[in-house]
Write the structure tokens for this entry.
Amino acid sequence: MKSMLMHSFVLDALATTGPDTFSHFEELVNEHRDICMEAANDNNSNNQQQPRQSRLKRLVPTVGVFHTPLPLRRAYEAYNAKYKLDKRRHLAISFNEIRHILNLAQIMAFCTACSMGNEAENEQFNLRLLESPALRPRGTGGDVSKIPNFCLDDFDKATKNATTVTETDAPGKFNGPSMITFDGDQTLYSDGANFESNPKLATYLYLLLRNGVTVAVVTAAGYEYQTHKYELRLSGLLQFFQDKQPLLTEEQLNRFYLFGGECNYLLRLGKDYKLHPVKEFGAGGWMTATKYLGLDSPANWPENDVTRLLDLAEESLKGSLREQNLKAKFIRKKRSVGLVPEGGSSPPIPREALDETVLRVSDHLDTSLRSTSERSPVIPYCAFNGGRDVWVDVGNKRVGVQILQSYLDVPAAETLHIGDQFLNTGNDYAARQTCPCIWITSPDETTYVLKSILRLAGIAPLQHLAAHERDDSMGLDGLSLRTEATCRISNVDFTELERRTSAVATMDVYTGELLPPVVPPSKPTPAATASDAK
Ligand code: IMP
Ligand code: MG
């Protein structure tokens, strides 16, 4: 995409060619979707003909599945209206900007029946709409008058004009995704940290639950069914749900899930604000309900295969540790093995060493498992660079999200996964196969994405925030502004301070080992000071 836009940039013509170029991308995506659908139908009808290859597939051989059309032109226009990319003379559109535009298009794709602007604006907008191939009504299904207007610039105005859906306990269908799955580390909280005080993000998650959306954290962090360890990582969010008025109903709380170890341990939030294991077997058990998925359900994994996979991964990780002279320690759990920093004051493991270790272990597993079991299928696994560590998990996020879709009966096109690891050495990458995805780089971007989803669904998210939290300067690029905004606000959250200081223990997020609380150094008594002085 970046290279196709270079041409317009070099010729100084982005202002005239930009929107049409994005329309062209939409056409390529539509063509690719049609051909994928044809291929799927042919497979079902055992048609032996060679499938057609899309132009997009020829340009980008690794291109995946598009679960929805993408209104890329509209997204580009909204983004450009705010950031004026077409006025730049020296700096071409960047990878990050293209990521933002794709994210925006994906958010818009979910909302097809709300209107955010005034009537004149909508009319203008609807005229231009026809230039966006993804939004052109296909067949009799699409209703152009119901496609959202979206402007990144004027949040307050949009909020005033929004057909505000005041959240109710029996809401209509949410005009957005039915289920949003979230990665944990670096998406809801910083890498290795916990969900502590983040009222904005917590409010948006609360609003999703209030409006009928299923929310699930699908994280690689696996502590078996030791629920208090996951609760510790989400403690600020669970506390927020407990304090926020009006309280969430039991049905709303029950729509919050956590899948630990990628797809191994499924938990659900109860009315006591605690996480409870979801029954695995028997009537209504999630493993029983997904047995039909074959090796795509942990219900069918032979224990011997799990052990062999972990043995091979262990061999490779330990080889990397030795040969690359890494300052790291090896961990083995029931469903994963990992290399993590030694801790204390030891330096972080360099990114190059992490990537080398991932590629090496992937290669080792691919060759060993696929050559020995030639025809028999292999259980799913995921080798990834977590930013500070390397892990091989049995299972992956494709399996995790797919199980939720199947167990909760949510179609792929109504599911959205939000995560930070979408390089081919990351663990969110696998989710692309089963649902639309949004690639963020920090919890601040997740917050922004949720605000946009809520707004497009007709809910005014800012009205639910305390005045000092309403700062809207944080755009998709607004992290520096955000820092400035945070500096301006010096409110001390005493409840949060209290909650943190009274927590009984902290936890090693890698092993799940509980550590004794850090006792603040006490002031020396006058007697001790006197004796020290002697
Ligand atoms: P995610 O980003 O929420 O998927 O979490 C990934 C991070 O979880 C890794 O980078 C690790 O720091 C941490 N983690 C803790 N336990 C495990 C495990 O058993 N497997 C993989 N990652 C783990
Ligand atoms: Mg992550």
Q: What stands out?
A: Residues 14-44 form the longest helix (31 residues). The first strand starts at residue 179 and ends at 182.
